[in-house]
Amino acid sequence: MILNPSAKSLKEFVVKGTAAPMKLKFDTVEFNVDQYINDKYEMVQDLFTKFPGLDVEPDGSISINGKKVTKIKINGQEYMISNIKSLTSIIPANMISKIQFVDDYDELGRLTGRRNGVPNITINLVTPKDISTIYNLRIDGGLGNENKYLIAANGGFHNPKDQLFFMVNNNNKDAAGGNGTITNGEAGYHYNFNKQLSLNVSGRMNNQSAVFQSFSQSTDITDNGTLNSVNNGTNYSANKMKELNLKSAYKITDNDLVLVQFSAGNTNTVSQNNSTTNQTGFQKKDIDNVISQEGKSNNWSGSVLASHTFNKPGRILSLQLSLNNNDSKYQTDEADKIRYYNDTSYLDSIIFQQIHKDELGNNSSLAISYVEPVKENASFELKYIYQNRITKNSLLTSWGDENGKLLPVDSLSSQYKYAVYQHQVEGNYQLAKGNAEYTLGVAISPNQLKTTTTSSGTTIFPVLKFRYKWPSLLFSINYQGQTRFPTYQQIAPVTDLSNIQYPIVGNPDLKIGQSHSVIAEFTRSGKNSFWGRGMYTKNIHDIAVNTILIEDVLGTVKQETHYLNTNGNFSGEAKLGWSRQFGKVKNSIRVEMGTKYSHNILFANNVQKYNDSWNVSVKMNPQFRVGWVTFMPNFGYQFNRSKYNITEETVIDFHTFNMGGYLFIKFPEGFSLEASGNKQLNWGYASGAIANPLFMDMNIGKKFFGDKITILLECNNVFNQQNSSSYNVSANSVSIGSSSVVNRFFMLHAIYRFSKAK
What we know:
By secondary structure, the chain is mainly beta. Helix content is about 5%, strand content about 70%. It has a 26-stranded antiparallel β-barrel. Strands 1, 2, 3, 4, 5, 6, 7 and 8 form an eight-stranded mixed sheet that branches.
């Protein structure tokens, strides 16, 4: 049988594929924007709620997989600004093709390719290939009852040559407690003179004032019994801050780079706190306290980084020099009226003190790195680091006599110098083999602490890091060692009587301590995305609190805080997140859970005790988008347990349950309804501090000319809740309380948007 060849032409056919919503690289998590856009009017900021592992806090800060975002770039060009939310809220999502979250190490690590330590996270927005220039502008204005107002504008442009961003804001709707004003502004400009030279400059200012009411109840557990305190206060604060930043990169040749950075700023603060305290338990006491404080701080910092790449690929020599200076001055005036109750009578005491504190800090560091390639995929780094931190303190404490005249108290005043000197020599070997990357080495660090005494030592830390990448999974494990120095307050040679009833006594003989941590992380991409992070930390020569009850001349006791070195403190934590997309990523569900346990040594009247803290949290965030309706409920539960053995084993439990959500309904003709709310339920709080608030904000809107103009009728704090609840656990004290929030008000809010790409 003979078969004859025959050919037939087929018609053209096209195979279409869908890009993966999420990709993983060794140091980058990348999201394909097209897979997450549901509305042509969405901004980049709107996408963040859809990305797995991403959290956006109420203040606008962003974190991914538990790590906070600190910088933002567009097409690799950095914007030296702090207000990332304002920039991402004006860029339409359809002008961006990819959003990358990059592990960002310091400038030296970036040049040498060494990814040691814990990175910060940088957002990089990538525009499509057919877009080289974007322009964006948003202007807000609003008026409401209760004399509420809002004036704001932010905008900018981006192209390969230069980039600009600015933001100005003035309002009295966001101040703490509903009383006060916020005026802030920020601008950043990046200019590329040519391929060799670029300049990045930014400036910002912030003026803010607030008045709010506070209430708290605290329990101090001592070996004499329990002290219970009920506190009511009125708090006023105002601060003014200005800052200027410069950054310039000069590529002298293809092998030589110089990077210069400089920052300068100043801060002025004023505050006054009026409080009353009723103390019961094994001792009864009433306190009226007024504290007024003024502070001024001027600071500057600068650094120079120079790098030379040799002709042999991978051979790099780098040097970095950094200097910074901070000059701070504070004056505190405090008046205390104290009534001590005995079994059948009471005694009154009036104390007035004034504290002047000047602090001058000078820090400097030098780092030299030499990288030698051993073979194509391996290299060895030899690094030397020198750091010093020198702080000069002047403390003058004066007390008022019976005639109101201020007299210096020598025993509470001092001229004090605190100096830390550190050297570190490190050698590490890095190997990239297949999908794995290994870093192995050792760091030797002689250090010295000079105060009224001198303490010195040498620590040896291993350098260990392992990263492995599968197609859809990235895993890393990292060891981090750190030398821990006592703070100025812990080591100060004079007693701190800023709070008359709780003196703080420093210990100049404290030793230098160490912290050893192991951190493991993983991220898995796909329709089902997982991420996890675990950390265990062990401290050596840690600093423990020693609470001592001291009798005073009136026959009552004060609770003094002392410090001493101890071993035995450790902590461990684990976090796990899971998310799943449904229906072409329009619908999703995200679940996050975490737990943290810490064992802390503390002392009561010089006898060793312990405090164990345990925290468990669970959050669930479904997202549903059906037609014109977007609904994103959220549920959260948090359990906190503190266990002490000061007198006998004492267990204190707190439970907090949150449920809330976000609802957006888009009606025909450009109308919309938007609402967000949160209900909090608390168990374990003392009765006076239970608030269980229900907060809700909502608005009705109408769009004109597409998305260019939006008019909103807003209602803030619909149910007019007055307080938000909080709790704090430290040493042998547990405090729970509430503070006032913005009262209900209505506002007519107009928004103008302009966006253009070419």
